[in-house]
C-alpha cells in the first residue's frame, strides 16, 4: 500500500496511474491534511511518497511523515521536492530525497524496492533544485491538528477479551469475539429463543466500577435506542446479567467494507454512488437530529448482495468537540476508494472528496448522481428501443409478393395503417426554418463560478440548434460534389469514417419530411439534428463557413454577461426549456414542457438568452470545439459537451456543467450542435446560400 502526496494534480495523476499499472495499490492526496485523512482509513501503509513543500503556510511533507508514523511506525518515506532544500537535511531523518524533475523510472523502482524489501538508500546530501526554497518552507512542529488526525478513534485494544465462545449471558450465547475498544468489547452471539444472530456489545468489566463509566454506557444505549432508520442497525435490548452490562443490536446484511477490501471486491461508479447515497442518507438523518457519533470505520459499513448499504449504529452522547462533517465525509469517501473499480470510479470518489460535503449535502449530491445514472440508462434504453422499433417497422412493411396482386387501394391502406399504428394523423410539414444568427457583444462576462471573470471577443452564434432540414442541405451539397466533400473533413477524422450520415438517417429524414414519427415520437424538419458525432458537426460548420463554439463562447451566449442561472434569467420556469422533468422513454411524457423527445426549434421561445439565442438550456445538448482531458482517463483529450437535453432532469446547473464525451465518435439521440462565426452573417441566408 502506497500513499502518494503531491499538490500538482497532473504529476499526481500520472505517477499514481503508472504505479497502479505495475500492480501497486496507491492512494493519493494533495496536501498533508488530506494525507492524514487517507491514513486514518488504512489498516496498512508500506510507503509514503510526499513532496516536501506542500503548500504555503501549511503543513509540510515532513509533518505528514511524522504524523503518519504514529499509526504506522514502520512506514518508509520518499520525499520529492521542487525547491532548494539545502539546510533542511535534519528533517529528512535518513529518508531519500528526489529533486524535480524526477527520473520517474528511478522513483518507481525506489517505491517498488521499499515496498518489497523495506530498504532504501538514505540521502547523504541534498540534491540541487532549480527553484529556491520559499520562505514558508520552514518546517512546522506538528501539533494536535495534523498528528492526532491519524489516530484511529476507539482503536482496537490488544488485550485478552472477557468472554469465551459458548459463554451464556441470559438468552444469548457468545459465538465469536469481533473486536475490542477502549470501553467495550464486541462479539457475535446467538439469541437462543429465536435462533437469531446478533451483535453483543459488552461494557468492559474493568470499566464498570470506574466513576461515570456505567452511566455513560447506559446513556449510549439510550441514544442508540432513540434512532430509527432502515439503514442504521437497530438496538434490540440492553441488559445486565451476573454483573455484566451489555446491549445487543442487529447484524447488518451483507459484508463489511473491511471484508470487501480484504476479498478484493470492486464496484463500478453506479454501485459506489448507491453505497454513498445509502450511507450519507443514514448519517444525514441522524446528524440532522443532533446526534453525535464516532467516525465510521471499514467494519461499520455493510453492503448486501443487491448493492444496498447499511451501517452499524455508531451514534452516542455528545463528545467534548463537535464533529467536523466535511472532514468525516472525506474519510468515508477515501475509505471507499479502495473498492473503486477502474479510473471512472476512482475519479468519482476524488471529485466528491474535493467538493467537500456535510453528510446531508453528500446525500443530496449522491442522489443527483443517481439521477444522472438513471438518465444515462434511459437514453441507452431509448437508443436500443429506437433500433428495435425501426427494425420491426421494416419487417412489417416488407409486403409479401402475393399482396401485390391486390388492389392499390388495399395496399396503400395496409401500409398507412402500419406506419401510423393507430395514431392520429400528424399535422402537415412546417415551413423550414431559415438560418439565423445573433450577435454576442465583446466584453467581460462571468464564467462558471461567480467570481471568475473572462473577456470574449465579439462573435455571432446560431439562433437555433442546427435542424434536420439544415443538415439535409449539407448532405445534399456533399452528394452533388463528392470530390469536394473531403475538403470539409477534419484533419484528424478517422480514415474509417467515410461520410457524415447520421445513424438511421433515411428513416429519420423520411419521418421528419412528413412530420411523422421516429422512435415513436413526433418529428419534423425543424427539430434539431441528433445522432451526429463531433466530426459531423465540425464538417457541417466548416461547410457553412463557420466553426463550432468554444465552451467559453457557448457559456457566454447561454448565461449572458452576468452569469445567469438560466438563459432567460435566474427564476425557475419549468415550462421554458425542453428538459427531462417530464421525460418518459416509453413515449408518453411531455406533460411539463410539452415535448417528450425533440422539440421543433421555434416551439420553445421562452428558452431564450439575453442576446436572443434559443434552446441553449434544453432540447439537445451541444458539441463544442473545446477538447479537455477526460476526468476518468487523464491522458485522453475528448470534446466537451454543454447544455441540457430532453431527458436531463437537472435544470439547476445545466448551463455550467461540463459533459465529457467518451470520444469524438460518441453520437446520441440527445446531442446536436450549433455554429458560430467571427464575422457578421448576411441579413438573411440559408445554409445553401452561405455555402456558395
TrEMBL record:
Lineage: superkingdom: Bacteria
Gene Ontology process terms (BP): phosphorelay signal transduction system
Molecular functions per Gene Ontology: formylglycine-generating oxidase activity
Coiled coil: none
Protein name: Formylglycine-generating enzyme required for sulfatase activity
Organism whose genome encodes this protein: Roseimicrobium gellanilyticum
Classification via SUPFAM superfamilies: C-type lectin-like, CheY-like, Protein kinase-like (PK-like)
PROSITE patterns cross-referenced by the UniProt entry: RESPONSE_REGULATORY
Ranges where the Response regulatory domain occurs: 1-115
Amino acid at each position: 500500500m502506497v500513499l502518494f502526496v503531491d499538490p500538482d494534480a497532473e504529476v499526481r495523476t500520472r505517477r499514481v496511474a503508472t504505479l497502479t499499472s505495475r500492480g501497486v495499490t496507491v492512494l493519493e492526496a494533495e496536501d498533508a491534511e488530506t494525507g492524514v485523512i487517507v491514513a486514518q482509513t488504512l489498516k496498512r501503509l508500506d510507503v509514503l511518497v510526499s513532496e516536501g513543500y506542500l503548500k504555503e503556510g501549511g503543513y509540510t511533507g515532513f509533518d505528514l511523515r511524522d504524523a503518519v508514523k504514529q499509526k504506522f511506525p514502520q512506514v518508509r518515506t520518499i520525499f520529492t521536492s521542487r525547491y532548494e532544500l539545502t539546510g533542511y537535511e535534519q528533517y529528512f531523518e535518513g529518508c531519500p530525497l528526489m529533486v524535480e524533475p524526477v527520473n520517474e523510472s528511478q522513483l518507481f523502482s525506489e517505491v517498488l524496492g521499499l515496498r518489497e524489501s523495506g530498504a532504501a538508500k538514505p540521502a547523504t546530501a541534498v540534491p540541487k533544485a532549480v527553484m529556491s526554497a520559499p520562505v514558508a518552507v520552514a518546517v512546522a512542529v506538528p501539533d494536535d491538528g495534523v498528528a492526532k488526525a491519524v489516530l484511529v478513534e476507539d482503536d482496537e485494544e490488544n488485550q485478552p477479551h472477557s468472554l469465551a465462545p459458548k459463554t451464556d449471558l441470559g438468552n444469548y450465547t457468545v459465538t465469536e469475539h469481533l473486536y475490542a475498544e477502549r470501553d467495550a468489547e464486541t462479539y457475535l452471539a446467538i439469541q437462543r429463543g429465536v435462533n437469531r444472530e446478533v451483535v453483543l456489545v459488552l461494557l468492559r468489566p474493568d470499566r464498570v466500577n470506574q466513576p461515570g463509566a456505567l452511566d455513560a454506557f447506559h446513556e449510549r444505549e439510550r441514544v442508540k435506542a432513540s434512532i430509527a432508520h432502515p439503514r442504521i442497525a437497530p438496538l434490540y435490548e440492553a441488559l445486565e446479567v451476573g454483573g455484566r452490562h451489555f446491549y445487543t443490536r442487529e447484524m447488518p446484511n451483507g459484508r463489511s467494507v473491511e471484508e470487501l477490501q480484504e476479498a478484493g471486491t470492486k464496484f463500478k461508479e453506479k454501485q459506489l454512488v448507491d453505497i454513498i447515497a445509502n450511507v450519507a442518507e443514514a448519517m444525514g438523518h441522524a446528524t440532522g437530529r443532533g446526534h453525535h457519533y464516532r467516525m465510521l470505520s471499514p467494519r461499520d459499513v455493510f453492503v448486501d448482495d443487491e448493492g444496498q448499504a447499511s451501517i452499524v449504529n455508531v451514534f452516542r452522547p455528545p463528545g467534548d468537540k463537535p464533529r467536523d462533517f466535511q472532514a468525516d465525509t472525506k474519510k468515508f469517501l477515501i475509505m471507499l476508494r479502495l473498492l473503486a473499480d477502474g479510473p471512472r470510479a476512482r475519479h468519482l470518489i476524488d471529485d466528491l472528496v474535493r467538493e467537500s460535503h456535510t453528510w446531508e449535502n453528500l446525500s443530496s449530491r449522491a442522489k443527483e448522481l443517481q439521477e444522472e445514472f438513471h438518465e444515462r440508462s434511459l437514453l441507452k434504453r431509448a437508443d436500443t428501443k429506437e433500433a428495435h422499433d425501426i427494425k420491426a417497422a421494416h419487417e412489417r412493411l416488407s409486403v409479401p409478393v402475393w399482396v401485390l396482386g391486390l388492389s392499390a387501394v388495399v395496399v396503400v391502406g395496409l401500409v398507412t395503417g402500419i406506419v401510423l399504428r393507430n395514431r392520429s394523423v400528424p399535422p402537415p410539414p412546417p415551413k423550414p426554418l431559415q438560418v439565423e444568427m445573433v450577435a454576442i457583444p465583446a466584453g467581460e462576462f462571468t464564467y462558471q463560478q461567480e467570481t471568475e471573470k473572462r473577456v470574449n471577443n465579439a462573435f455571432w452564434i446560431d439562433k437555433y440548434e442546427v435542424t434536420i432540414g439544415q443538415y439535409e442541405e449539407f448532405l445534399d451539397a456533399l452528394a452533388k460534389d463528392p470530390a469536394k466533400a473531403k475538403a470539409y473533413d477534419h484533419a484528424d477524422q478517422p480514415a474509417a469514417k467515410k461520410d457524415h450520415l447520421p445513424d438511421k438517417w433515411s428513416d429519420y429524414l423520411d419521418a421528419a419530411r412528413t412530420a411523422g414519427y421516429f422512435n415513436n415520437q413526433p418529428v419534423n424538419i425543424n427539430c434539431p439534428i441528433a445522432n451526429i458525432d463531433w466530426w459531423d458537426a465540425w464538417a457541417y460548420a466548416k461547410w457553412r463557413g463557420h466553426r463550432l463554439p468554444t465552451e467559453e463562447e457557448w457559456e457566454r451566449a447561454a448565461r449572458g454577461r452576468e452569469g445567469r442561472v438560466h438563459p432567460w434569467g435566474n427564476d425557475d420556469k419549468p415550462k421554458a426549456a425542453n428538459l427531462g422533468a417530464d421525460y418518459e422513454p416509453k413515449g408518453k411524457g411531455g406533460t411539463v414542457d410539452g415535448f417528450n423527445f425533440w422539440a421543433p426549434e421555434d416551439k420553445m421561445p421562452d428558452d431564450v438568452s439575453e442576446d436572443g439565442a434559443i434552446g441553449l438550456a434544453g432540447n439537445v445538448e451541444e458539441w463544442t470545439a473545446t477538447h479537455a482531458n477526460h476526468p476518468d482517463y487523464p491522458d485522453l483529450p475528448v470534446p466537451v459537451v454543454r447544455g441540457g437535453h430532453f431527458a436531463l432532469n437537472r435544470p439547476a446547473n445545466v448551463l455550467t456543467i461540463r459533459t465529457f464525451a467518451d470520444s469524438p465518435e460518441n453520437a446520441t439521440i440527445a446531442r446536436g450542435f450549433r455554429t458560430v462565426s467571427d464575422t457578421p452573417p448576411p441579413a438573411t441566408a440559408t445554409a445553401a446560400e452561405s455555402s456558395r
